[in-house]
Structure formats: structure tokens, C-alpha cells
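hey m, so remember when u said the C-alpha cells were messed up on ur end? i reran from scratch. heres the input so u can diff it against urs
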Amino acid sequence: MSATYRALASVVMLIGFYVVALLQLAAVAALGVWLFSHTSGVITGKLLLPLVVALGAVGVGLWKAIRTKNEPAPGLILDERAAPWLWATVRELATAVGTRAPDEIRLVPEVNAAVGEQSRLLGLIGGRRTLYVGLPLLQAMRVDQLRSVLAHELGHYSGRHTRLGGVAYRGRLAIGETIERISPRNPIGWVFKQYAKLYLLVDNAASRRQELEADRASVQIAGHQAAASALRTLPALDAAWRFYETRYVDPGWSAGLAPDDFFGGFGHLLQARRDEIDELRENAPEGPASRWDTHPPIGARVAAMDQIPPVHVTPDDRPAWSMLADVVGAGRALQSLIVAHGSRRLLPWPEFIAESIAAGVQQRADGIYRAAGRFTGTPEPGLPTVLDLVRAGRLGEFAEQFFTNATRREAAAAFAGPMETLLDNAAVRSGRAYWQLSWSEPARLVGRSGEPWDLAEVAKLAVAPETLDEALARLAELGVDVRQSTVLQARASARNADLIAALANIKIDGREHDVYVLDNGLVLVPEPGKAHEGEKRLKEVLSATPVAEVASRNPFLPYEEIRSVEVTKRVPLKAVITLHDGRTVQVQELMASEFLEKHSRDTLLRVFEQINA
């Protein structure tokens, strides 16, 4: 019933969207006739042009929605040989829920499962069915939990949710394309945005009802315990996947490296941190219900499951990955199909971690060395440059910039932390130590034979003139050559930087630029384009290109090169940036400037305040 309701509501709302467009077209035509009879044709054209452009966007949105093909999402197609048990289970469950089995199963990299159908004639004629199963689910779940997930997805088929889902999808696409093409300043855009909100409210409500219907199939087939535990596992698994990407993959990825077994690494993490993941599952916070959600909160879904008559099902705690003939091979095949490595070097996990952490340590060391170079005037600074400051009793004076609220004596003592980073870097650069992979805890620095290395005590000795020689003697005993630790990147880059704001059509030294505000610098894109398309342009660039790549193609101004910022006017923003080398950069916001989000100017002002602090 919910499928019919959703499709009917989507069709009615979509028709209503274009009725609104026709009414506004009639209003624009009437306004045009009135203006033409009371003003000149030139004035009429100028006033009506934005409205006509907005209505033209409606036609473009509809055309794109009509032409969009309902193609399956990318994934590794699993045949009977690759997943005999999985295929047998899916067919069994399809029969149990009273529906036709999917025509293909695709392995995907998401922490999710889904179904799709390439139906025709607005869903009146069924089409090819595809079941998507996330490899992380197979790696993390028990067999009975995965059966509940599969029964839920097949329940969407038996409830005819996928048959007419294309109507809802095309409605969202048409409205989204229309809204995206209308300037925020166009009055017609406001009307369409309000209608789009109404459309989403209606469609999302129907989607939530469909999820509850599919949950019923899950409970009736797999039982309450398996269905509820699978639901509660999903947020914990999603958090584990984000942790895996952030802590293990991203550092090496941004350093030009890639693991040769991307998904296998996640499997190792799951095994090593199972207790932590179990704790996450048991203590997952229950998010509040929102009318904008496409799925009900997990707590509400579990509560609804409790109302379904109990069904006795024998638990099956075998690992779900055993449903594949070769889970490791499937993961590698999925990686070759889905993961775009580019020019990155593929490395086994131990070497990948060793090199990626070493690159991160070198990056932090380079920041310290560049500061030492500016402080001393040394063109090629390194660890000897910093140690010379220690011997001369000037470390506190240099370290003040890193510990702004400390006295010089306190700053010198606190520099033991950065000094440990420099010594770790020297140990690796000397070939005496490396970073050892661990799936259960952070990587640690070890010697050639795997013995732990901890240079924290040596670092404390190295920040005081009276104990510096003792520190150097200990390093020599370990075979660490301090001369090996030097700056590799003479100028800061946007690698590993995060975007915190963006402003379009800002004058930089008299020329218009788009300005991307990162957490370590400003990306200045010259001659970006039309002012009224600024916000749209910023979003398009960021959705298509990593911000580090944008920075590599355009001028990048690191904050560490800025000495001070004088803000002469906050709104519209006017400021003068003074660099350490004496050069200045003029910044001026225009009346036509646009922001990625409304607080972008405030974010940039806070950055300027922090630089001056």
C-alpha cells in the first residue's frame, strides 16, 4: 500500500511542481504585457530576464529527469561460483517473502545493502532486479544478521517499493536540477524551494513507511534477535568504517600511496577491535526523529519490531563472509573495479603504514623547519638548525610562536613535544627505525629488530643547553644521524588540509578571485567567472575536485607565511595581509560576492584574528 501511495504522491507532487511553473509563466507573461505597455521594451526585458531564466530552468530539470537512465550502481557482479551460499540464501529468502529473486547480486564498498529495479512505464512493467550487498556487512556480520538484512531488502521487492521507486527518484531529480539552476536572488527560486521542501516531506514520509514494512519481513524471516542486532550493528559499523578510512587509509592516500588490499585491511581492523565495536553497538546514541529523514530512527524501528508476533529462528553465528567462495579475492577484485588509485603506489599494509606515517611526521617536521628557517634566515633548515638554537639559548625565543601563552622558559620546556617529532623523523631518515602497523592500537616506532623505540626522554634532554650533549650522545649510540633530518617541502601545501569556508568573487590585489579558506591557508583562484553564479560555482568545484587538487592548480597562501592581518572593515570585508617577507595582499569583498555558506565571512575573520593572536 505504501508503494502505491508513494508513487501516487510523487506523480501528483511532480505534476503540481509544473503547474506551479505554468502559473508563474502566466504571471510573468501578464507582467510582461503590463510592463511593455507602461515602460520601454529595454526595461521590460531587463526586469523579465531573470524570471524567464528561472522558468527555463524548469524545462531543463524536466528534460534531465526524463533522459536519466535507471542504470545499476557500480559494483562487482557475483556469479554462482563466487557466492554459491549467498545466491542460495537470497533465493530461499525471496521465496519466503513471496517475491521474484534478483537477477544479479553486486558487491559494493558501502556499509549498506540495497535493491533496485529497472522498471518501465513508470513502474507498470517490472524490469531487471539488482541486489547490492556491502562488503563491510559481509566482513562484520553473522550469518543470521545478514539474513535479516537480505530479508529486509527483498521485502522491498515484495512490497513493490522498487517497482515505482523510479517515479519518486525522477521527481527528486527534476526538482533538484531546477532549484540548482536558479540563482538564490531570483524571486521565483524561493517559490520553487518551498515547493521542493513540501515534495521531500511527502516523499520521505512514504519512504519511512516502506522501511517499516520491509522490517516486518526481516523479523518474520530472521527473528527478532537477529533483525534488531543487525540494525544496531549498522551505526557501529559505519563509525568503524569512518575510523578505518580516517586513521589508516587517508594519511597514506594523501601522501601518494594506496594499500594493495583496501577491504582486507578493514577485515583485520574488525577482528582486532571487535570489543570496541561491540561497545559502540550497545551504546549507540538514539538520534531524534526528523520529518526530513528517509528512514525512521533505529530505536523506533526496533520498537516496531517488538510489536510483531515472535518467530522462533535458530541463531547462526557463523561469519557472513563465508557466504563468498573467496572473500579476500572478492575484496581485491572490488578494489580493482571501484577504487581509483591514480598514480599512487600500491603497497602491502605494513609498508603502506610505515611510509604513510613517516610522510606525516615529515610534514609536521617540515612546518617546524620552515619556521626555523624564517627565524634564523637559514635557506635549508633542518634539525641541526633547531639544535643550534638550543645550544645558543634561543630555543625559548623561537618556540614562543608555538606556545603563545607561555613564557620563553616554559616554551622551551614545552618544545620537548615537537622535538620528539623531529627526533622520530631523524631516526626514520637514518634508517634506524620504522613505524610498525597495529590494527588494535596506534602504530609505534620500532627499531630494525622490532624493539620499541621511545625518544621522549631524549627529546627532553635535547631542549636544554646543559643536557644537549647527552641527548646527542644517546642518539649517536642508537645510530641516529641528526643531519639526515632536514626540510623536504620548502613551502607548505594543502595536502591533508580541510576546507572550512569559501567566498566567491573577492578582490585580491584588485583582481576578482574565488577564495577557498582551508585550515592551513588560502587558495586563490583568479578570474573565476560571473558573480551571480558564485555560490553554485563553489559547490560544483568542490563536488568534483578535492580541495588539495584545487590548491595545486592555483596560488596557495599558507597561514604560516602571514605575519599579520589588518582588518579595516568587517562588512563588507576589507583587509590587508602582511607576509613575513614584507609583501602585502589586499582583500576586498564586493557587493556581488557570494559565500559557500552564510558564515564564510565570519570564518575568514576568525582566521585573521587567530593569525594576529
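this time it looks ok to me. Residues 181 and 227 are 43 Å apart (CA to CA). if urs says something different then somethings off w ur setup not the seq
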